[in-house]
Amino acid sequence: MQDDIKKACDILRKGGIILYPTDTIWGIGCDATNEEAVKRIYDLKQRDDTKSMLVLMDNPAKLQTYVKEVPDIAWDLIDLADKPLTIIYDGAKNLAPNLIAPDGSIGIRITAETFSMELCRQFRKPIVSTSANISGDPSPSSFSEIGQTIKEGVDYIVTYRQKEQTKAKPSGIVKLGKDGSIKIIRK
């Protein structure tokens, strides 16, 4: 695993894109602060850049670097989540402009899965995480379901967990309102 993390970090630092296991499904990732790398993922997925992608972080303490104001309820949601939870925050900052939604929001998930957490920790910046499929196609629930176009379009494919056949599921998604409201986007 450590060799994969080192290689993936090297690719991310050079502006490359990776295919990697996350706390949910396999994802396509890049440095979330690198506008060119983010564009490459949109191009690979054949996805309109107005459709936001989320980012992974290893530690909630880093949220304040990338969100103007973290609502108090967010800390409770992170602490109480019993499965992967993506939270959409208003006021994204210090991220690639083409990653931030038109309304200024960004989806962030604090990962607790061993590989993605250690990758984020060693990379020291948020990492884009978007499903490893062409936009509109079903999301693959295991590495074996990822299409050849995606595999050929990335700069590095992590070997860790490729043989797992457990059917992974996407995260839950909630959007926090400026008024303290919580809107459930996906359970």
Automatic annotation (TrEMBL):
Coiled-coil positions: none
Protein EC: 2.7.7.87
SUPFAM superfamilies from the UniProt entry: YrdC/RibB (SSF55821)
GO biological process, one term: tRNA processing
Taxonomy, superkingdom: Bacteria
Keywords linked to the UniProt accession: ATP-binding, Cytoplasm, Nucleotide-binding, Nucleotidyltransferase, Transferase, tRNA processing
Catalytic reactions of this protein: L-threonine + hydrogencarbonate + ATP = L-threonylcarbamoyladenylate + diphosphate + H2O
YrdC-like domain: residues covered: 2-187
Subcellular location: Cytoplasm
Molecular function in Gene Ontology: ATP binding; double-stranded RNA binding; L-threonylcarbamoyladenylate synthase; tRNA binding
InterPro entries given in the database record: DHBP_synth_RibB-like_a/b_dom, Sua5-like_dom, TC-AMP_synthase_SUA5
One cellular component term from this protein's GO annotations in UniProt: cytoplasm
Similarity comment: family membership: Belongs to the SUA5 family.
Protein name in UniProt: L-threonylcarbamoyladenylate synthase
Organism this protein belongs to: Proteiniphilum saccharofermentans
Classification of source organism: Bacteria, Pseudomonadati, Bacteroidota, Bacteroidia, Bacteroidales
